[in-house]
Fold:
Amino acid sequence: MANNKNWHTVCHKQDLITDAGICALVNQDEQVAIFFINNEQVYSIANWDPIGRANVLSRGITGDEQGEVFVASPLYKQRYSLTSGHCLDDDAITVRHYPTRIENEQVQILA
Structure:
């Protein structure tokens, strides 16, 4: 089976906000929340909060619990791992995680 994923340039590195999220549209219909943690590592997960049922995760508050970097939903405060998309408060819930990189000052997402 062929891999249909491609790297998509979504913004410039200078558009990122340290320890906060921004939202980008990928593949014309996927909202992705992008986080720039400690001014060095970039992560991306789906912007859709499955509990709050809204595209809001990019507006969440970032944190770190025992080495696990997460974003807390601004609606009901569930925490989602930025490295895997798993909900730290409910093992049954996961949001999509996107490999993300910075190449030549461009933020790219594999989607």
Summary: The radius of gyration is 13 Å. The chain is about 0% helix and 50% strand. Residues 48 and 55 are 4 Å apart (CA to CA).
